[in-house]
Design a protein that fits this description.
The protein is an alpha/beta fold. The protein has helices spanning about 30-35, 50-60, 65, 85, 140-145, 185-195, 240-245, 250-255, 275-305, 340, 370-375, 390-395, 420-425, 475-490, and strands at about 5-10, 40-45, 95-100, 125-130, 205-210, 315-320, 345-350, 360-365, 405-410, 435-440, 445, 455, 500-505, 505-510. The strands form three sheets. The chain has an eight-stranded mixed sheet. The radius of gyration is 22 Å and the shape is globular. The model has no long low-confidence stretch (mean pLDDT about 95).
């Protein structure tokens, strides 16, 4: 059954902005209206981080342990089907507005091929309509130049706020050099609407990926000051930085080396020296960027209404990963806390409006999105997919034997992390990482290489304030969670070929 699909992926948006602790402080009328007409998945998690790996999982339906593009820059094998390659089986030309952050497979390419000089490649199967990559947004810059902006020599200086004080040193909440009408968010939306306006008579599949609210944190007026002064937006910090370091070697390594250099213009990475005023200022800018996003998502939805496509369009809204936003004194997404992995997922299916407004509390994962899309268009998912279609939930059913936990992982090895974790842990590159398994009661963070684990009684401690891994009273729970994680990994080892057999009768799939 054909139809239209709008697949929106936000970069670095945490779930509780939409439905949780921070939601009440945020002005997001368009997304809240969409939630009333959709199914919202309250316990939805990215299965890995950062950007490249998380999107590889979104597009392949595979855990990172199977696709192995585990850091920005790790090639994604061309042997893995993607949602785009499979959508072509249904007759769609998968349109991309933005970026996939996919490091391409180097096999067959000459070492001088420019495609090998950037991790921001294109996932196979997509047709790149508007190229809006994080390090290569020349189309947007060209638009700014054509409108008379004096562009800086460096692309990164485009995100330098315009200082409002006499000393010439910008504050994070000073406005961007571009207006809100000319921001990267506005430009991508404008270009998407222009392209889709001539496709209203077609069934289309469009993936739209917004860079914001990914750092560097800078917003155009009026969004830069929209939330300034709201003390309610201060982070959750159960312990001091010294207290965090005492918990586990991970925090010792994280805080002993400057982190998050690109958080905002000129930041030196010294998180322990960041004042509460700066923290509140940065969180307010993050909020402003989300409200700006909401405005432009509203424009997309209005276009669907005005062009009589709304009731023919499946809408999926999600994020690649979260943002810690100062909680636990940490920023970014390269840590084991739920602020990095818990992301929003909203699905509006025009064919199943009887479930509109439903909220699902079952554990769902980013690898479930690709199977859901294929299910909606009637294409069988590849044997190797780890995820499962969410269509039963959207149709008002609860699938039998649905997972009772979430699983995620992160690789922390190599130069990308300044070797800090390898040096702190005394591990090899292949041993430097962690895996997470969380159920209704407990959350286990298992570190490779003999590094001690973290364990939280997550049902009673949602802020992950108290590590109980060393408490003898929870030894049995630690063992049970460790065994459960091992079972999960063994069950979900890559099985695209192991579920096939060559027999006298030919190839058999099982």
């Amino acid at each position: 059954m054909p139809g239209k699909i709008l697949y929106i992926i936000i970069d670095q948006l945490r779930a509780d902005c939409l439905n949780g602790a921070m939601a009440a402080s945020l002005d997001m009328p368009n997304l809240r209206n969409l939630m009333e007409e959709s199914v919202t998945f309250n316990r939805h998690y990215s299965v890995t981080t950062p950007c490249g790996p998380s999107r590889a999982s979104l597009f392949t339906g595979l855990y990172a342990m199977n696709h192995r593009s585990v850091q920005n820059g790790n090639p994604l094998s061309s042997g893995h089907p993607t949602i785009a390659t499979q959508m072509r089986h249904a007759g769609y030309d998968p349109l991309l507005f933005g970026y996939t952050d996919t490091s391409i497979d180097p096999q067959g390419l000459h070492p001088n091929d420019p495609a090998l000089r950037s991790y921001e490649g294109l996932a196979q199967g997509f047709s790149e309509i508007i190229r809006m990559r994080f390090d290569d947004s020349s189309s947007w810059l060209g638009d700014l130049k054509a409108k008379g902006y004096q562009l800086p020599k460096s692309y990164w200086e485009t995100y330098k706020p315009v200082a409002s004080k006499g000393n010439g040193i910008p504050s994070p909440s000073d406005p961007a050099l571009y207006s809100s009408e000319d921001s990267d968010t506005a430009f991508l939306t404008n270009q998407t609407l222009r392209e889709l306006s001539v496709r209203t008579h077609l069934d289309w599949f469009s993936t739209l990926t917004y860079i914001r609210p990914h750092p560097p944190l800078v917003a155009p007026a009026p969004y830069n000051k929209m939330y300034q002064g709201q003390r309610a937006i201060m982070p959750v910090r159960p312990k001091s930085i010294a207290g965090m370091k005492a918990i586990h070697p991970f925090y010792e390594a994280f805080f002993n080396t400057p982190s998050q250099h690109g958080l905002f213009w000129g930041f030196d990475g010294q998180l322990d020296q960041m004042s509460d005023e700066t923290i509140a200022e940065l969180r307010a800018v993050y909020y402003g960027l989300i409200t700006e996003l909401d405005l432009h998502i509203g424009r997309l939805l209005q276009f669907l209404h005005d062009s009589d496509q709304y009731e023919d369009t499946l809408i999926i809204f999600t994020a690649d990963h979260g943002e810690t936003l100062g909680d636990h004194h940490m920023w970014g997404k390269n840590n084991p806390h739920n602020t990095s992995f818990h992301v929003p997922l909203i699905i509006r299916d025009p064919r199943n409006q009887q479930t509109a407004g439903t909220q699902i509390d079952a554990f769902t994962e980013s690898i479930d999105v690709a199977p859901t899309l294929l299910d909606w268009v009637g294409v069988e998912q590849p044997l190797g997919f780890n995820g499962h279609s969410l269509m039963p939930f959207i149709e008002g059913k609860h699938p039998d034997n649905w997972r009772d936990h979430m699983f995620a992982e992160m690789d922390m090895s190599g130069e990308f992390y300044d070797l800090r974790y390898q040096q702190q842990f005394g591990t090899t590159p292949r041993q430097t990482g962690f895996a997470i398994l969380q159920d209704n009661q407990f959350k286990l963070v298992h570190f490779n290489g003999g590094v001690k684990p973290l364990l939280y009684k997550i049902g009673e401690d949602p802020d992950e304030a108290n590590n109980i891994a060393d408490d003898p009273g929870f030894a049995a729970q630690l063992l049970t969670m460790t065994q459960k994680m091992l079972d999960h990994r063994m069950t979900h080892a890559h099985h695209a070929l192991s579920r096939m057999s060559l027999t006298a009768d030919g190839l058999v799939s099982r």
